[in-house]
Amino acid sequence: MKSGFVTLVGRPNVGKSSLINSFLGRKAVIVTEKPQTTRNTIRCIYNDSESQIIFVDTPGIHEPLHRLGEFMVRSAIQALKHVDLILFVVDASRGVGDPEDRICNILNQAKNRVFLVVNKIDIADDYEKIPELIKQKLEIEKVFFTSVVKGIGISELLNAVKEALPEGPQYFPTDMVTDRPLSFQISEIIREKILLLTREEVPHCVAVIVDEIAERSNGVLYVAATVYVERDSQKGILIGKNGSMIKQIGTLARLEIEQLVGKKVYLDLHVKVKKDWRNKDFIILNEIGMKAEIE
Ligand SMILES: Nc1nc2c(ncn2[C@@H]2O[C@H](COP(=O)(O)OP(=O)(O)OP(=O)(O)O)[C@@H](O)[C@H]2O)c(=O)[nH]1
Ligand SMILES: [Mg+2]
Q1: What is the pLDDT of residues 249-260, one digit of tens each?
Q2: I want to staple 3 with a disulfide (CB 3.0 to 4.6 A). Which of 28, 140, 168, 271 is the partner?
């Protein structure tokens, strides 16, 4: 069979996670309209009768303002090593800028095979010149124009990726969707709902940690999670008037977690203030789902 590892890289918000969900035909990773949604590298496993492709989702490459940001960019760069192919994703509506220049430099050092993916063509004009601009700085093997929203170019890209991969083993069981534990997937669903419902600085100041997952005798899955923010004012926004905001977040998250686990869920959400957590190690480690390992 054809198999291998394929890393998606690009500035924040270009549609890396959306492309992966589209390849897999299901939601494996969270997507929002806010930049810096993805904070970790996440391996997502695509299977069909003749291939297994491990798509590696990465945080968007940006200029970091705190240790969490540094961690995110470092882990994206790390994910370029020892993979079979890179998909360099560019937003057709934003074109080529400093972040793309920086990514070209990084990719030149990594010396991987690269396909350029110009995504969001449904909301852009004038994107045909993007490949030429990139090719001045980086060797590109193939170029694809895609729209996740309109489903344009996705199957062509997937087929080309498959063709580019070597003959190899099945690396993961076929029923595995990502390499992250359930606690991480649940924390991401909760964070996604917070990102969808809050604005300005709040989304970036939020971390979610699942403290407990327990099977109850009545068949309900009990999930306790803590939402960390950096300031009291952010806690107030998250809780909302008479608890209305946290209730809305909890309901949306619970419905999706129930779909994921296939049973009823009782979701117990708490909000705590942890000053400057984005510069503190322990939460950052929790963010990458390593809580169990460091305890
Ligand atoms: N119009 C349009 N929007 C898209 C397309 N692909 C993704 N989006 C939207 O772009 C936004 C960002 O998508 P993501 O998949 O989260 O982008 P990302 O590159 O993973 O972003 P980070 O995780 O922040 O690095 C979301 O609102 C998506 O719905 C597309 O082809 N067309
Ligand atoms: Mg993402």
Answers
A1: 999 999 999 999
A2: 168
**Of the options 3.30.70.1450, 3.20.20.70, 3.30.300.20, 3.90.800.10, the CATH number for the domain spanning 182-294:** 3.30.300.20
Indicate whether 284 pLDDT > 80: no
Q: Residue 39's pLDDT is what? A: 94
Of all protein residues, the one whose alpha carbon is nearest to atom 12 of ligand 1 is 13
Q: Long-range contacts made by residues 249-257, C-beta under 8 angstroms, separation at least 24?
A: 249/190, 249/193, 249/194, 249/197, 252/193, 252/196, 252/197, 253/189, 253/190, 253/192, 253/193, 256/189, 256/193, 257/186, 257/189, 257/221, 257/223
Select the CATH number that applies to the domain covering 2-164 from these four: 3.40.50.300, 3.40.50.80, 3.30.565.10, 3.40.50.790.
3.40.50.300
Atom 7, ligand 1: which residue's CA is nearest? 15
Cβ–ligand 1 distance for 39 under 6 Å, the answer no
The response to whether 112 counts as a known ligand-binding position is no
